[in-house]
Structure formats: structure tokens, C-alpha cells
Amino acid sequence: MHVKIILRKNMETLGKMGEIKRVKMGYARNYLLPRGVAFLATPANLAWWKAVEQTHKKAQEKEEQKAHETVEKLKDVALSFTRPVSPEGQLFGSVGKADIAKSLKASGFSIDRGQIMLETPLKQVGDFEVELRLGPAIRTKIKVSVLARR
What we know:
This protein is an alpha+beta fold. The protein is built from 3 helices and 7 strands. The protein is elongated.
């Protein structure tokens, strides 16, 4: 059984804010509605959404503009991490999303861990490119260097 919902937030797997989608009832009831990601597309909710849609569009445009400005600032950012290594060159520890987010925050950027697209932590010495997803279609890459400390 399916139900119609209105998305309150952008979801990469489902759609953009304000779109009306048809999803399975269990997905809506157990995930989307409790987390505030969507609400049911009842006639009253549809009428309310139409009334405030312009306000939401302006807020979304402002958010996208801010994301584009952040992309421009991030073009010159290069992060460097030093980790201990064994005599054989084996890295002790790794560099993960939390490390990158913390370093970006120290540099003045408010990037959430969920926006860092790193499948597995960096466990080798070297230079890497890490993708950041700042919006539904706004992506950029930063340089991350992992250096050896003996």
C-alpha cells in the first residue's frame, strides 16, 4: 500500500523539498514522518504548502547560494594529517570523516560529517581527493594529505 507525501527536506535518494512523492506506507510511517523529512499530502497540508511555498523557495535559493560560495572558498583548501607509522611503513590509525570535519571546522567551514563522501577511512600515507556534497547537485573536492610521523 502506498501513500503520498510532501518532502520537507532535500533527500538525495527521494527528491527535492516540496515535491510530492508516492512511497510505501511503512517507509513513510516508520522513517520519513518521525524524522520530520516529510508530511502526508492531505488536502489541508497541500493547501498549507502552496501558501508557504514561496518562502521555502527563497530559503532554498539562499541556501544554494551559500553552498556555491562555500565551494569557491574550498577550492584552495588542502588538509594535512600526520599519523604514526611503523618501521615497515604501516600506518597506525586512520583519517576518517570526523577528522576531516573537525579540521574543516577549525578552518572556518561548517561541513557536517554526512556531507563528506568517504567510503572508508584513509589508511595509507599519500595525497587523496575527498568529495564533499554541499547540496543535491552541489559537489566539490578537497585535497587531503596523510603524512608519516616516525
